[in-house]
Design brief:
It is a multi-pass membrane protein. It is found in: Cell membrane. Its main location: membrane. By secondary structure, the chain is mainly alpha-helical. Helices cover 79% and strands 0% of the residues. It has 2 domains: 1-66, no CATH class; 67-112. Helix 1 (2-23) crosses helix 2 and helix 1 (2-23) packs across helix 3. The radius of gyration is 19 Å and the shape is extended.
Length: 112
């Protein structure tokens, strides 16, 4: 019965986030808003951690299985991925370098 409660709380936050995203004048993922709502509810202790802990652990434990449909769906776009492979790799590497430079700069600044 505990897992049902856990999933209902997580699902309620997800649906609330989707509702908020639907009324926003710009596009924003409802799942991110729902995650933020869950974070805020946990931070303000309006819901207790043990209300969502076991359900969250179960989802995290089986997260790899949740990516299988996405990976299979990408197989339909292999030609598009092949054409833009170097752009994807270059963008990922540039992002990695920018993040490392930014974090390094902030670390040096805070340690002065």
């Amino acid at each position: 019965m505990g897992l049902v409660r856990d999933f209902l709380v997580i699902l309620a936050c997800l649906q609330l986030g989707k509702g908020v995203a639907a009324v926003l004048p710009f596009g924003f993922p409802g799942s991110i808003i729902g995650l933020f709502v869950l974070f805020m509810l946990l931070s303000l202790q309006l819901i207790r951690l043990h209300w969502v802990h076991d359900g969250g652990q179960l989802i995290l434990r089986h997260m790899a299985l949740l990516f299988i449909p996405v990976a299979v769906g990408l197989l339909g776009y292999l030609d598009v991925l092949r054409d833009g492979l170097w752009l994807i790799i270059g963008t990922a590497l540039a992002g990695l370098v920018l993040i490392l430079l930014g974090v390094g700069h902030l670390y040096q600044r805070w340690n002065r």
